[in-house]
Amino acid sequence: MTLTRLLWLVASVLLAFSCREPYQYSLGTETTIPERELDSSVESNIESEEYSDLKWSSLSTRLIRLTAPQYIKRVHNAFGDQVQLTSKLPKDLVIEGSIALGTSKSVSTDRDVEQLALAAEELAASISSNLSLISSLHPCLSELDSDYTSLSPSPQERAAWFSCLSSVTESAAQRLWGRELDLKEWEQTYRIIGRGLDLLKSPQEALTFALSWLLQSPHFLYRVEGYERDSMRPTSTTLAERLSYFFHDSPPDSQLLSADDLHHYEGWTREVDRLLDSPQLERGIRSIFNDLWALWRLDRLHLNKDPELFEHLSAQIGASAKEETLMSVWDSAEAQRPLSTLFTQRRAYIDRSLAAVYQLPAPSREGFDWARISEDSQRVGILGQLSFLALNAHPTSTSSTLRGFFVLDKLLCVPPPPPPSGVDTSIPEPTPDRPTLRDRLESHLSEPSCAGCHRPMDMIGLTFEGFDSLAQERQEERGVALDLSGELLGDTVYGPVELAEKIADDPRLASCLTRRLFRYGRALHETAEERVLMERLASELKHEGELSIKSLLRAIALSEGFHGPYAEQGGRR
Amino acid sequence: MRFNSKRSRAAQPLLTKPMDRRTMLRGVLGGVSIGVGLPLLEAHYHRAHSQETGFPNRFGLFYWGNGNLPDRWRPEGPGDASSPWTPSEQLAPLSAWADQVSVLTGMTVNVTNELPHFSGLVGSLCASPAIVNGEDYTFPAMSVDQVFAEAWRDQTRFRSLELAVAESYPISYLGPHQPLQPETSPLSLYQRVFGEGFRAPGEDVAIDPKMLLRRSVLDAVMSDQRSLIPKLGRSDQMRLEQHFESIRSLERRLARLEEDPPNFEGCSRPSEPIDANETDGRERLTKTHQAFAELLALALACDQTRVFTEVLTRPVGNYLFPHSSVGHHRLTHDEPGDQPEVKAVVIQIMERFSELIAALHAIPEGEGTLLDHTYLVGTSEVSLGRSHSLEDLPFLIAGGGGRALKSGVHYHSSGGESTTSAWLSVMRAAGLRQAEWGVEGQRSANSLGIIEV
For chain B, how many structural domains are there in total? Predict the structure, then answer.
């Protein structure tokens, strides 16, 4: 019996004894199970061996909207990277700072639909004007000896184009939707192509609108998580998409889609390992950490910093900072380094703009390169990067509160509650007696009503005071040498290097990451039971000394929380 | 009736029953020529225009984050249209418009201030407490601008327009987790409203037959509805229904563009605005806002929408205003004493509000101006930013022409009436039949009779 299966059993037994409420499997806070359906059956079945049927009993089909990058990726997978989009896609909904969580709640508003229509038409026009691409969809185009851009009055010619364009559309649908058109969809295809030929007198433009339809259809814009009627297991397509979007942030390849043993542990493990070894994993991991740490906020960083104060500020700096962080994460994942080294490593991934801020020699070649950071520097690991330090700071000055909050919330999953209302939150201006942030924060740290929540944040944040609001290293503030002492949830630390070591070693780091990865991968909140499962999974890996980003991803994907119950080979299911 | 002169002879509807012009257009397109200048049928403009003026009522929301300095905000005197209130220092930029603006002070948002800024935002604009579920928080229902948009839906091409200046932040919601994402670039707003397909009065531009294909495509998308929706869980069904509803709305908009070109005298095609992305530095806010204000005024004048929301700065927004030492939100909390820097920021915000009023006022409509047919409310989510106070919230009402609401008055609510009462006054003045609004402490059936004519 594998580790994950053992854990699942333990969690299930715990559940059987503790759960007196209707168990809503995997549905988080979104209640889609009508309670009355469960109420009567729970008590009688919960302790029988049938419980695992019960938790699947009312699962209904879920709708997950593609994010903007997934939309583009789906188009690229179908038609190649040369198809470019300039118009804007709808903004992805963010829930709790996560785009992934937003995908299962987002609703398409008037403006979204308008933007989707514009984008679809632009893409469709770009595809239909690409003759080699169209010919690759169906050879009829090259076989037809008549003008593609202008229809002659001949009825024979119209008929030939009508048939050819319908075939091209069918083939495009196969690539975009991953399936054949049904009868009703054929009718729609004929209707659009017929009207297009008659009104626009151009086969090319008629095709544009047929393709535009494929791109505006919900079959393209959403992925649907469905369940098998009899076994109540996710369908194979659902499993394939779930895994592929989790690991690669893109639709499943044909091998994954055609696998017929995804319900079996062996088959699933094989695909999990294949996807983990694929070069596409880099895209997936970048997408994950962009979402987990809300790094997309960096795109507008330069607008939130004072250009008069920071001479190294450029419109590019946010993107460079994002690249550094994502590359660091990818590098750690690819090399399967222990998770902790992400926080303790003394190297930076820099281009010229970051080199200026970090006061390191600029890379000799264009673009990015790794650079060593000296042991004297306070800059270490992910938390020494511009992305974290500048995003969690004000336009002109630092914020120990924001920096501390990020650590507690995003890294350790122990966020302090929001501030109470009606309190005077001002901190005194800097004066000769109170030159540093630490001096000015004295009241936040000593006043009992503030300190309860502020102290945990500020005492983390104050260790980073050696970096200004743009992450430039500094020794003093207003001429006074900085004191970098602080605490990590009660443990005394001095400076960001010691803090990073403490965070890297904190068991909450792995369990928090596991929980957030699960949410990302399933696009929903974990249940209390799944949380237990995820925490154990993380601590086991840590205990075995195998805690890396890849090992975590693998363990989560193999867990029944992610996959659902496995079919036993030759067994009852 | 005040339509374009060349059309004004037919002030009364030509047809007693509105004619389906789509049928007519299809007839034309089925024949030979497509480039037919469309004759104007006044029947199509005879909608819910104000009986008195011949022009429709509009609603605008001008929003800024982080509040004001309430103890020094209040103007002097109750005032009236002929002798309006005397501005405080913070309200000084509005002095030129004092006879067209009413100032409400002492209004309260009666919700638990669970999430600073957000509770006040939702409490006032939604008249109910925010939904707060751990880290997940959202609006529970339609925001006030959407109440107007819902009442006037299908009357204009766009149900409403949402804009954000300093940074993208939605405050318009259709329901929980259904934010209406704002436009942040004047150029894309221009392209959206005045781009392809738009015809200013007098322009006889051929109808693009692609418009018909676009509608066929939308019809085809709609045909998926029946096959997809029944399979889903309840909440996902609702999500997909809303998606299809948005598609229907887009279809209607395309139809309107073809069949229903604008014809108010104040309507003209604006010039192409600046690209917001090309402006940076501290002046970005002013330049973007100015470009938005001009476009909004013409979007209303051309009856492309009757509802807009402009978020100048967002709640908790930390925009670095010209002459400020640090970002706005940070200033409200950290600046000690009388907060002169916060005051300077509030004054700048009022300058922007004044520019928006001026842009609406610059467009003639009938005997008056577009401003007279617009109810423009300026408000924020807190009063004193430092303490996130929900008492004495700033609430300004501009425009309306003094017909249903008094102009130039200052009303101080000593009992701390709910902002809902003020919103009800504006709703009813604009012709909405709203018997009551809101839930719990923010629920009210009473408007502010004292500011009504």
Answer: 3
